[in-house]
Design goal:
The chain is α+β, with helices and mostly antiparallel strands. 62% of the residues lie in helices and 13% in strands. The chain has five helices and three strands; from the N terminus they run ααβααββα. The protein has a three-stranded antiparallel sheet. A hairpin with a 2-residue loop joins strand 2 and strand 3. 16% of the residues are buried.
Length: 105
Amino acid sequence: MNLRRDVFQAISDPTRRAILLLVTTQSMTAGTIASNFETSRPTVSKHLQILTECELLKQEQNGREIYYHLNPQKMKEIADFIEPFRKMWDDKFNKLESVMKKYIQ
């Protein structure tokens, strides 16, 4: 059974966000990633599986090792989805700032 994971549910977990930050600069094996956490390797492997199913991470085999690296296209899709909300809140905060400046002066 192939479950379709929700990308926002995947990034809601702090460990998975930390894994994404780890692989932003270089590809890493599961063992290298796991060595950065105080959890068991099977737990980290489950996080990697979820991130891979959501296509946030890609796997690349090099000999016997599997390296995980960030999928920038999927990250861009998330950023594109969030952008209108960011703009809306920026506008609201800018309006609030303008109102506050009128009363402070």
